[in-house]
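$ ./design --mode recover --in tokens.txt
reading tokens...
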């Protein structure tokens, strides 16, 4: 039996792509000083762009995008 795919990507690959897209969207909103509303610890909360949890996502996104940028230059 073959595993389901989405445009040739496995379920795990699609989950990773979705997670990275969400992190990039949160980072972009934070950089624009837009508060982020989402499910945090089982509750809907609005977090300020300066919240340490948001800053961690921004850092992670920036690192990933920097790596992509380095690869594109080669």
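writing sequence...
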């Amino acid at each position: 039996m073959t595993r389901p795919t989405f445009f040739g990507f496995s379920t795990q690959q699609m989950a990773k792509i979705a997670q990275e897209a969400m992190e990039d969207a949160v980072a972009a909103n934070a950089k624009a000083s837009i508060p982020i509303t989402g499910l945090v610890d089982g509750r809907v909360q609005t977090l300020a762009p300066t919240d340490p949890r948001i800053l961690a996502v921004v850092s992670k996104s920036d690192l990933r995008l920097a790596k992509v940028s380095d690869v594109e230059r080669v």
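exit 0
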